[in-house]
Amino acid sequence: MTAPVVTRFAPSPTGFLHIGGARTALFNWLYARHTGGTMLLRIEDTDRERSTDAAVTAIIDGLAWLGLEADAPPISQFARAARHREVAEALLAAGKAYRCYATPAELEAMRETAKAEKRPPRYDGRWRDRDPSEAPAGVDPVIRLKAPLDGETVVHDQVQGEVRFPNKDLDDFVLLRSDGTPTYMHAVVVDDHDMGVTHIIRGDDHLTNAGRQTLIYQAMGWDVPVMSHIPLIHGPDGAKLSKRHGALGVEAYRAMGYLPVALRNYLVRLGWAHGDEEIIGTDDMIAWFDLPAINKGAARFDFAKLEAVNGHWIRQTEDGALVDMLMVERDHLPNGEILKRRPEEEVRRQLAAAMPGLKERAKTLVELTEGAAFLFAERPLAIDEKAEAILADGGRATVAALLPGLGALDEWTAGSVEAAVRTYADGAGLKLGKAAQPLRAALTGRTTSPGVFDVLAVLGRDEALARLHDQVAQS
Ligand code: GLU
Fold first, then answer.
1. Eight-class DSSP state of 2
2. Could you give phi then psi for residue 266, rounded to 5 degrees?
3. Where are the domains of the chain?
4. Contact partners, residue 247, CB within 8 Å, separation at least 6
5. pTM for the complete prediction?
6. CA distances from 183 to 13, 78, 99, 149 (A)
7. pLDDT tens profile 119-138
8. What distance in Å separates the CA atoms of residue 240 and residue 246, rounded to the nearest whole number?
9. Burial class (CB in 10 A: 0-12, 13-18, 19+), 405
């Protein structure tokens, strides 16, 4: 029986959870769910100067919002420094690593020579076989891996295929610095091994590290996890993803009103496909996701597509769930204030009533909130320029003429108000739209809204008639 799959997401908390990191997390989460395995979260906080608690919180919150929580509490890499040291010492004791006393000046000279000879800078192995008794006084050594000098190291990558590194290019790199702290290269291997990670899925900017890391696994006699290096996300122009083109933190997408389900759908399609499916729900994603289907080529980020996918998921989401979501997102949406103007119960009731009409028109929760603004607007309404033009151009007279019929209704529903407006329009020889337009302007202060009869119904008789009277009073 094969061991259960363990994946991990290993962000460095030097900034927020950016969109590329979110996709890496998604792929790790999906592969764990697909195989009935586990996804772990490791915070790579060894760089004490650049790591912040705020970034750790943002990463954990971002994952939770996206629905990609790890299956165990996060592990701090920094907290494991003693274990990293222990493994480096073990390699030393086994003759697989050695102490190097080269001074900064010597290393600098090595780099200069390599540069002059147009070679990549590599450590020249000067302490590899030297007797430690020759160690200069007062120099704290680093510990370097005794890497194989010839042959090649092969990474069997699920996405990139077989990637071969000539060992002469993988020099005796540092495992432990002279102050006893581990290098990134070393800490990652020790942690992945100790955490029981079976599958590493990460950005292909780590592919060369995979070669060096393989050497550490081999030196320790540990199994090398299955590797998948996924292509980075580029901008729509094929260049490195810029802020303008989407290189933002996950919280920015939240503030733009994207739904987690839509963002997951959009992100999974960046570099992975299942036939031509564009709209993929989470259950299908889990069922279909697999590593070899990940593309080798860079994915391109496209805001228009993300919006379209988001609009789809807004329409797919049940009205009640959207109302709940808007309530939760009030603090995150830039225009969330709109939803705080009335008692929560009232806001919920009105949103629920208006939701069928609202959600047809909104591509984001920001647009949904904006569309709902008329519900909670205070009288007398602020009328925008286009709406004012309609009201001024005979619209107020039409509203005045409609009022008696509407005011006389016993029953106030979308159907009954529509019938009243039709009766008036027919009698006056007007097209229905000519009557509806000024009504919309007077009721919402805008020229776009859900269907005007729904607007009348949702506002309720008293509020609707009061808004209409407000306009007539001005004529
Ligand atoms: N901490 C690394 C990063 O954020 C990832 C390391 C890894 O996945 O092995 O890029």
1. P
2. -65, -45
3. 6-76+233-300, 78-230, 317-376, 385-472
4. 18, 19, 20, 235, 241
5. 0.92
6. 16, 11, 15, 21
7. 888 898 899 999 888 988 88
8. 10
9. middle
12 lines ligand 1 (CB under 6 A): yes
* CB 11 less than 6 A from any atom of ligand 1: yes
CA distance 474 to 206: 68
Distance CA 143, CA 151 (A): 23
Give the C-alpha separation, 335 to 341, whole Å: 12
Q: Is the peptide bond before 141 cis (omega within 30 degrees of 0)?
A: no
The class (CATH top level) of 78-230 is alpha beta
Please report the beta strands in 316-475, taking only residues with DSSP state E, as ranges in sequence order. none
What CATH number was assigned to the domain covering residues 6-76+233-300?
3.40.50.620
Helix extents (H) in 275-331: 282-288, 303-316, 319-329
pLDDT band at 1 (very low <50, low <70, confident <90, very high): low
Domains 78-230 and 385-472 share a fold: no
Give me the active site residues, please: 243
Cβ–ligand 1 distance for 305 under 6 Å, the answer no
Mutating to test ligand 1, I would choose from 8, 12, 16, 157 the residue with most ligand atoms within 8 A of its C-beta, which is: 12
Please, what is the average pLDDT of the chain? 94
Helix, strand and coil content of the chain, in percent to the nearest 5, comes to: 50, 10, 35
The CATH number of 385-472, from 3.90.1200.10, 1.10.10.350, 1.10.3720.10, 3.10.560.10, is: 1.10.10.350
- Locate 365 and state its tokens: 């929760």
- Here the tokens at position 4 are 């259960």
Ligand 1 contact, 25 CB (< 6 A): no
First to last CA, the chain: 82
